[in-house]
Amino acid sequence: MKDLKKTWGEQKQHLKLKFAALTDTEVLFLEGKEEEMMTKLQIKLGKTRQELHQIISAL
């Protein structure tokens, strides 16, 4: 997930297509707030951290 920042613009669009319930605010990538964003996504999607990493890596 270290390279997430570089590719997040494209990945977040794919993630929003896959999970239509996500909002722009929930997928907003802010420097230093990566963990907070991932926790919000975990809660919203009902996924574990590992599942979320797998989903994002597969995009």
Which terms summarize this structure?
59 residues; mainly alpha; 3 helices
Please characterize this protein's 3D structure.
The protein has 59 residues and is mainly α. It is 63% helix and 0% strand. It contains three helices and no strands. The protein has helices at residues 4-18, 34-45, 49-58. The chain is globular and about 25 Å long. It starts with a helix and ends with a helix. The model has no long low-confidence stretch (mean pLDDT 87).
The counted number of beta strands is 0
- Summarize the amount of helix as a percent range: 55-70%
Mean pLDDT: 87
Residues in β-strands, percent: under 5%
Shape: globular
Main sheet? none
Order of helices and strands: HHH
- What is the rounded Rg? 10 Å
Distance between the amino and carboxyl termini: 12 Å
Individual helix count: 3
Query: What is the assembly state of the chains in this entry?
Result: single chain
Secondary-structure topology with pairs:
Layout: H1 4-18, H2 34-45, H3 49-58
Give a quick precis of the structure.
This protein is mainly α. 63% of the residues lie in helices and 0% in strands.
